[in-house]
């Protein structure tokens, strides 16, 4: 059985004080949830403060990005070791906004992934196609390239600390969500890719999340699909009640 993961990506939102208010509201709402792995990803400046606030809870802390080098003359960047020092257990890489807005390549994302795993952090590895790529029939080719290049040279053992997040770019922040069937089709394809890159056991045990306008009113249908093991939530993770409802998917 793959333990579900519900992760909240706060993106460029919330001051330190606002971040603390959010997790203080969230903690009692999900305190009884033990069967789901809960992760929140605040901005860099709030990480250490949120880590301290979450110390007595089951909620895990993620960063939204990192730089692959451990140290050096890289002004403005943050290494995996520094994230771990701030209290992070996870880090998101390859988010579509990093790919689309900042031109990050599969090779760069692979370097970050490798560096994070070496540092002992869990990776939330994002992939996904644009609307143009889907409509032109390139979706499977795009996903295949992102998986093969992004996970290049990783071992099956390292994959124990990696979570894949499928996020169709056309469904992020647009209010559009892939249908349950569209999402399941992509997830099943990705699981097949993992089997080809690694082995059947790795494919069967790797958790694959769906990301793209996930809300309290659509999470139940998504989570009912065989190959969807959780969600990477954007806007709805900024409201404690909405995020808690998503964490408690399937319970009405």
UniProtKB/TrEMBL annotation:
SUPFAM superfamilies: Triosephosphate isomerase (TIM) (SSF51351). InterPro entries: Aldolase_TIM, TIM_sf, TrioseP_Isoase_bac/euk, Triosephosphate_isomerase, Triosephosphate_isomerase_AS. Pathway: Carbohydrate biosynthesis; gluconeogenesis; Carbohydrate degradation; glycolysis; D-glyceraldehyde 3-phosphate from glycerone phosphate: step 1/1. It is found in: Cytoplasm. It is an enzyme of class 5 (isomerase). Its EC number is 5.3.1.1. Its main location: cytoplasm. Substrate binds at residues 9-11, 173, 213, 234-235. GO terms for molecular function: isomerase activity. The keyword Protein transport does not apply. The active site is at 95 (electrophile), 167 (proton acceptor). Keywords: Cytoplasm, Gluconeogenesis, Glycolysis, Isomerase. The keyword Isomerase applies. Pfam families: TIM (PF00121). PROSITE patterns: TIM_1, TIM_2. It catalyses: D-glyceraldehyde 3-phosphate = dihydroxyacetone phosphate. Homodimer. Belongs to the triosephosphate isomerase family. Involved in the gluconeogenesis. Catalyzes stereospecifically the conversion of dihydroxyacetone phosphate (DHAP) to D-glyceraldehyde-3-phosphate (G3P). PANTHER family: TRIOSEPHOSPHATE ISOMERASE (PTHR21139). This is Triosephosphate isomerase. The lineage of its organism: Bacteria, Pseudomonadati, Thermodesulfobacteriota, Desulfuromonadia, Desulfuromonadales.
């Amino acid at each position: 059985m793959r333990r579900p993961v519900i992760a909240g990506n706060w993106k460029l939102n919330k001051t330190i004080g606002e971040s603390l208010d959010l997790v203080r509201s969230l903690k009692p709402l999900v305190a009884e949830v033990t069967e789901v792995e809960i992760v929140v990803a605040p901005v860099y400046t709030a990480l250490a403060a949120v880590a301290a606030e979450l110390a007595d809870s089951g909620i895990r802390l993620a960063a939204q990005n990192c730089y692959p080098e451990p140290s050096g003359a890289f002004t403005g960047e943050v290494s995996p070791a520094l994230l771990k020092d701030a209290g992070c257990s996870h880090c998101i890489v390859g988010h579509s906004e990093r790919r689309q807005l900042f031109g990050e390549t599969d090779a760069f994302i692979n370097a970050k992934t490798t560096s994070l795993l070496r540092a002992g952090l869990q990776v939330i590895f994002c992939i996904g196609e644009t609307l143009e790529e889907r409509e032109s029939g390139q979706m499977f080719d795009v996903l295949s390239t992102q998986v093969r290049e992004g996970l290049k040279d990783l071992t099956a053992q390292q994959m124990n600390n990696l979570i894949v997040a499928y996020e169709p770019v056309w469904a992020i922040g647009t209010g559009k969500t892939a249908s349950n069937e569209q999402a399941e089709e992509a997830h099943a394809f990705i699981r097949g890719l993992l089997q080809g890159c690694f082995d059947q056991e790795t494919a069967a045990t790797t958790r694959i999340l769906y990301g793209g306008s996930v809300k309290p009113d659509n999470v139940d249908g998504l989570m009912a699909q065989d190959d969807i093991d959780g969600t990477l939530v954007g806007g709805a993770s900024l409201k404690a009640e909405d995020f808690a409802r998503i964490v408690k998917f399937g319970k009405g």
